[in-house]
Amino acid sequence: MAETALITITDVRVYRQVDSKFDTIRFNAFLTDVQRKNLRQLLGDALYYDFMLDARTAGKYLELLTGKVYTVNGQTAQYYGLKPALVYWWLAMAVREGDLFHSQVGAIQLTNNSVQNYESAKEKEKIALGYMETAQEYANDVIKFLNENSTTYPLWIGDSEKNKTQFVSFKI
To answer: What pTM did the predictor assign?
Structure first.
């Protein structure tokens, strides 16, 4: 299966500033890892593979990716889609494993940063954990949306043990 990039650096910039010179090859490598690990774990194998075949088209999974306003129990609900979760998972990975550093003016990519002291490593981990918490909030929203729209997404296994709780943990 060919990898479909579900988000772009422009999608990331909607949520956080990222240096305009951020390395495209690194972006794609981190994104591929996030999609294969985090997204697949969230959706389950069957839904993930079907979704990846159809995700960027106007097909049945477009709203799952981009979000929509829908009605549940007579009330209007806003679903933001998978993109925000993907963005924050990507940010967490970029902070932990890349040369992405957060300053007062936003995220920048450092070059020739061969010396990284213990304190800055702790700070990067703290920032990454914050991004993971935000990604988890969006992932919980995805689970809620899929459970409420299970007839539209029959490959979603909403009654499995992993999806009964409102909290699912992910590792990078």
So the answer is: 0.80
